[in-house]
TrEMBL record:
Residues covered by the Signal transduction histidine kinase internal region domain: 147-224
Protein name (database record): Histidine kinase
Protein source organism: Pinibacter aurantiacus
GO molecular function, one term: phosphorelay sensor kinase activity
Cellular-component GO terms for this entry: membrane
Pfam family, one: His_kinase
Coiled-coil parts of chain: none
Domain of life: Bacteria
Transmembrane segments: 43-65, 72-92, 104-127
């Protein structure tokens, strides 16, 4: 739409140039008799200026000026001025050409040509700038998709490793719980394999995913770990990036269990006025923070990166610890 409006405006200006120049030309050539010319001949002037517009915008600038061939560009412009002057002297024929003041050729050739070149140059740089911005956004979008796919590929194997470990533990010590565990695991796998390929999923599905994971962990640890999970709000109305919240929960189970007196994990998920308030807190043992597990922290690093890429200033993540309690608080503007 912008291009069409720009072209139409340019053509209107081009066709108006003779009317703006006529008073100056007539004032300078009152003593010189002009040979009458039919309207069709005057149209040549306008068509010539249109040709100059497109010649400069689509040939001279992209193939000469933008390729640093400045000398050739200047030579080409001189040639354009010469052609315009020649054609204009043919269109506006006078009986005594030698008596015409020097400013007449300026008004009838140089000034209109400069005006058209300025418009076409502006047009060329505008469309190039729009094109460059569009290409930049496309590259940024493609880079974002690539990076998010990479981050998800890191999350899924890491999470799967933890879930399978849970199933193995249940198979060893609570065989009667293996069947419900495998059912929960199948729901998790279905979500990971199919839902996580989508750009967005409903917040309800993400909540169910967390519920299945927490239930599975509850089956694994039974009463040895106090686990609380609460949720409230309207989840069906909003979408979220899949598997965005699970790393926070994983982190709580990873560092909130083992060599801890009465381990506790509290998870709260609440939709409030179009915002998601997600809180996770767990006890931890500072002596365990120097674990030899080199993969410790991968989940949190990835999810922080994903939040920055996807939500930017539309989220606030606070991570802190106090008195052997580890806190994660996420406020997310829902869409």
């Amino acid at each position: 739409m912008f291009a069409v409006l720009f072209h139409v405006t340019s053509w209107v200006l081009i066709f108006s140039i003779p009317f703006f120049l006529r008073p100056n030309i007539e004032a300078a050539t009152t003593h010189v008799r002009r040979v009458p010319q039919p309207p069709s001949v005057q149209a040549v002037f306008r068509l010539l200026l249109i040709a100059v517009f497109y010649l400069n915008a689509y040939i001279l600038i992209p193939f000469l000026l933008q390729k640093k061939k400045v000398a050739w560009y200047i030579v080409s412009l001189v040639g354009v001025f010469a052609v315009v002057l020649l054609v204009m002297l043919m269109v506006n024929r006078y009986e005594d050409v030698e008596s015409i003041p020097w400013r007449v050729p300026f008004f009838i050739s140089v000034f209109p040509t400069l005006f058209i070149l300025a418009i076409s140059t502006t047009y060329r740089f505008i469309i190039d700038n729009v094109k460059n911005e569009r290409n930049l956004k496309e590259r940024q979008t493609e880079h974002l998709k690539t990076e998010l796919s990479f981050l998800r590929s890191q999350v899924s194997p890491h999470f799967m490793f933890n879930v399978l470990n849970s199933a193995v533990s249940l198979a060893r010590v609570r065989s009667t719980q293996l069947e419900p565990t495998l059912i929960k695991l199948s729901h998790l796998l279905r979500y990971m394999l199919y839902e996580s390929d989508e750009d967005k999923v409903s917040l309800t599905k993400e909540r169910e995913y967390l519920q299945n994971y927490i239930d599975l962990q509850q089956l694994r640890f039974a009463d040895s770990v106090h686990i609380e999970f609460s949720s409230s709000g309207s989840f069906d109305s909003y979408l979220i990036e899949p598997m965005l919240l699970i790393p926070f929960v994983e982190n709580a189970f990873k560092h909130g269990i083992g060599f801890i007196d009465k381990p506790e994990i509290h998870i709260r998920m609440e939709e409030r006025a179009g915002e998601l308030h997600f809180e996770v807190k767990n006890k931890f043992n500072p002596a365990n923070q120097g674990s030899n597990d080199k993969h410790s922290g991968i989940g949190l690093v990835n999810v922080e990166r994903r939040l920055n890429l996807l939500y930017g200033n539309e989220h606030k993540l606070t991570i802190s610890n106090n008195n052997n309690w580890f806190y994660i608080n996420l406020i997310l503007q829902l869409r």
